[in-house]
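>> received
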Amino acid sequence: MMPFVVGRKEIPYLQQHDQADLVRNYFSATQDIFRRWGGNTMAIHYGYYPNPDSPADHLASLNSLTNRVVQEAGIKSGDVVLENGCGFGGVSKEVAKLGTSVYAVDFSSSQIGMAKQGQELDAQIRFSLQDFTRLAIRDNFIDHVIFIESLAHTADKLGAISEAKRVLKRGGNIVITDCCTHNLKNDKLLEIFESGWKAKIIPIGDMESIFKHLELKLEVTDITGHVLPSIKLAALSAEEHPDTEEVSDTIKGHRAAAIAFRDMVMAKKIYYFLLTATKE
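>> returned
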């Protein structure tokens, strides 16, 4: 097992604020939904379709998004990779197969517990319960940092990116896949989406400002079209499961958010981006 490297005084693992509690409770309540979605990939993100007009297998599309991130980051054998918001660990396990060492953090104990089950690459992956806005990892230690649909769930995006930069080696990359708007405000669908998925969505211009403030040059690629078949599939699945009295409010909110997200994407109110920055 890799040593867990801490280069400063150990800090509390979990953010003690309402957003963090909302997110932890959300993922605990929706765990079974995400397990069905990811199947044997253990992925909980949307899929990427290289050719959106000829959609591939759903599970293959989940791995395709991971592969797209690996390609964008330039991850190779021998690298040390940090995944912030690792969920069930599906992405981290795929990255470890490349011969990398992976530090995989999440502040959901239920998801970290699931990630540790059936772990075959014990010597290459260290799963830990952490808050990625306050990492217990030393400076300039990580080759690449990836966030796959996790940055949306923190209100402190500046803190998260600042920490990613701190632990990153010079020449290393930060790669993010997530959704942003173009200055969308007071929108009912956005309210449903954020409430249901416990997300904090910001305009892409604000995201660019964060990176500029941290002296990181950000490259923005709109990959909405490649992810759209997966977005539609998630919404269709939500529509096929009508709400009943037995369904919890969290599950109802999750399903409503999936539908709202599709509708916003189709109306060009929100976009799915691939974001890349290199630490000079």
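>> Residues 1-16 have pLDDT under 50 and may be disordered.
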